[in-house]
Amino acid sequence: MFFEREKGGEKAVLVHIDFQEEAEREDSDEFLELVRSAGAEPLALIRGSRNHPSPRHFVGEGKLEEIRAAVEEHQAELVLFNHSLKPSQERNLEAALQCRVLDRTGLILDIFAQRARTYEGKLQVELAQLEFMSTRLVRGWTHLERQKGGIGLRGPGETQLETDRRLLRARISAIHRRLKKVRTQRENSRRARVQAEIPSVSIVGYTNAGKSTLFNRVTASGVYAADQLFATLDPTLRRLDITDVGPVVLADTVGFIRHLPHKLVEAFRATLQEAAEATLLVHVVDAASQERDDNIHQVESVLEEIDAQDIPVLMVFNKIDLLEQQPRIDRDDDGKPLRVWLSAITGAGVELLLQAISERLATQVVQGCLVLTPQHSRLRARLFELGGVQAEHYDDDGRCLLDLRLPQKDFRQLLSQLDLDESALVWTTKP
User: Fold this and answer.
1) Strand ranges (E), 26-171
2) Domain holding 85: CATH number?
3) Looking at the structure, do residues 253 and 304 belong to the same domain, yes or no?
4) In this structure, is residue 27 part of a structural domain?
5) Is 372 found in the same domain as 327?
6) Which residues contact 91 (CB under 8 A, 6 or more apart)?
7) Domain count, the chain
8) Are 278 and 251 spatial neighbours (Cβ–Cβ below 8 Å)?
9) C-beta separation of 115 from 135 below 8 A
10) β-sheet with 313-318: strand ranges across
């Protein structure tokens, strides 16, 4: 892991500054959740307000003294800022405070490094860490001027910093090559699903909104879910059979967060591509959160950044058990499902979600009473195999009457396999 965890280094002093501009503001409660998710022990929270960050130390001289006093009082070895710091500001702060300093981006990277489980996830985290570290290489190498030479080895050479940058560039290039192979494999899988006309549904939402809990509830999977930020990093795909639609690929994706570092968006583009190329997005929202509307806006911003803003969205307001609300579906004037209110932890309303997904995806359904003669025995058998037969009856002439309801694409694909002409089939009203 890039951020070495020294003994006792988990005790941290936190710094949160309120700025006048709304776009630069961060949430202090969310910051505390990030710190706890990283495994650190918050000892003190230093708050302040400024119009603009100080170019040298980000905070003013008075606030810097307050932070230094808190570090000495609590014997802290780490100061965490709820903001993005410039490399020069980070170096100046470390020199002034005589301890490690980490900004919001570095903290999120550390959490990602702990949670990555798959080969692709670990590569993506390492890539983001290396690109983040490449701008901060001056730190730690200031005591070295030139590599020591000897007889036959004298000359200008290169500084340790230059050597390290060269090694970093080589490692970054190697990771890019490996990720390219992974992305090609993932793209081939998507292409195969598209050719088979299998719809894909991606679960997106703000971190800790309950996406993985809902995913487990719907698919009966054992995906890791916890009440912490970024519990899920690696995308998980499961097949799900939806009424009137058939097989659907359901994807659980990484959670979003306000001011998600651009390097992370770039590094996780292959993962987020599952959302960018989905047939339908299920946007899970923590209905009990006080920041609900702002969190929705932040997710929409990330979706726009990965070019997924035009994909149809079904909103899911989760955790209604905390609001004492009843499960329901909100529809537009045409009856199309827009929002589903449910509780993933209790399971209340999950069947309404499956119903809403079915209505949003099943745009064309074959429904009616099909008349079959004995010559159509193979068609009858295959229709039962597809699960499209609702009921079966026989008339006085011995003909088979099937009440059908199944996706039109499945019905036409079956007729093509059996070399049957759809126009030659006979339909009637239900007996």
Assistant:
1) 41-50, 78-81, 100-102
2) 3.40.50.11060
3) yes
4) yes
5) no
6) 136, 138, 139
7) 3
8) yes
9) no
10) 236-242, 246-252, 200-205, 280-286, 313-318, 337-341, 328-331
- Let me know whether 255 and 303 are in one domain: yes
Annotated binding site: 205-212, 230-234, 252-255, 318-321
Provide the pLDDT for residue 406. 82
Q: For residues 234 and 232, give the distance between their C-alpha atoms in angstroms, rounded to a whole number.
A: 6
Burial annotation 127-143 (CB, 10 A radius, 16+ → b, else e): bbbbbbbeeeeeeeeee
Do 214 and 94 belong together in one domain? no
What pLDDT does 160 receive? 65
> Which residue, of 62, 81, 102, is where some domain finishes?
102
Domain assignment of residue 409, yes or no: yes
State the binding site for GTP.
Answer: 205-212, 230-234, 252-255, 318-321
Q: Same domain for 228 and 270? A: yes
Q: Residue 253 carries which side chain, given as an amino acid letter?
A: T
Range of the domain at 376: 365-428
188 within some domain? no
Is 230:255 a contact under the CB 8 Å cutoff? yes
User: What is the Cα–Cα distance from 271 to 276, expressed in whole angstroms?
Assistant: 9
pTM over 0.90: no
In a domain, 399, yes or no: yes
- Tell me, what's the pLDDT at 317? 97
By DSSP bridging, strand 426-428 and strand 365-372 are antiparallel
Q: Which residues are annotated as a binding site for Mg(2+)?
A: 212, 232
Same domain, yes or no: 98 and 20: yes
Does 355 lie in the same domain as 269? yes
Mean pLDDT for back-to-back runs of 10 residues, the chain (431 residues): 45 88 69 85 90 90 94 91 90 91 87 76 82 66 43 51 78 87 76 72 89 88 58 70 84 77 65 80 94 90 85 95 92 92 95 93 80 89 89 87 84 87 83 53
d(CA 57, CA 50): 13
